[in-house]
Amino acid sequence: MPDDLTVQAAPSSHPCALDGCPEAVLVQWQRRIDEDSTAAVYACGRHALTLDLAAQVHAATCGAPDPKLLPECGCTPETLPPPIEAPVLGTVTLPTGWTLPAPMEAL
Ligand SMILES: [Zn+2]
Ligand SMILES: [Zn+2]
């Protein structure tokens, strides 16, 4: 059985995408390569995009992590399809403020 796991390197084994930055990688995001594929871009905490930007797929020309642009990147990321939401059957709100799915027998 081939040891496929060895090719799936953990993000922490990548250097920050900014040339010469020695810091440990904390985040990654996707950059478009062509119509069908994207590549991961890794960055340390100091050279990270905002969380919202990091959740999106960036243009091939995206400049991140360019310190002149951070915490933005200068490109217009692709809009991801909205997450599929589970149907809400009903909720109950507890006195503590928690909103929980309603128990089946309560519907
Ligand atoms: Zn860095
Ligand atoms: Zn970008």
Keywords, please?
mainly beta, 107 residues, binds zinc ion, three-stranded mixed sheet, elongated, 5 strands
Average pLDDT taken over every residue:
84
Name the bound molecules. Answer: zinc ion
Q: Can you list the strand order of the major beta sheet?
A: 2-1-3
Radius of gyration: 20 Å
Secondary-structure element sequence?
EEHEEE
Residue runs with pLDDT of under 50 for 5 or more positions: none
Total number of strands: 5
Distance between the termini: 51 Å
Major pleated sheet: 3 strands, mixed
Structural class of the helices, strands and pairings?
A: mainly beta
> Which descriptor suits the 3D outline?
elongated
The oligomerization state is: single chain
Number of domains: 1
Tally of DSSP helical segments: 1
- Could you estimate the helical fraction of the residues in percent? under 10%
Share in β-strands:
15-25%
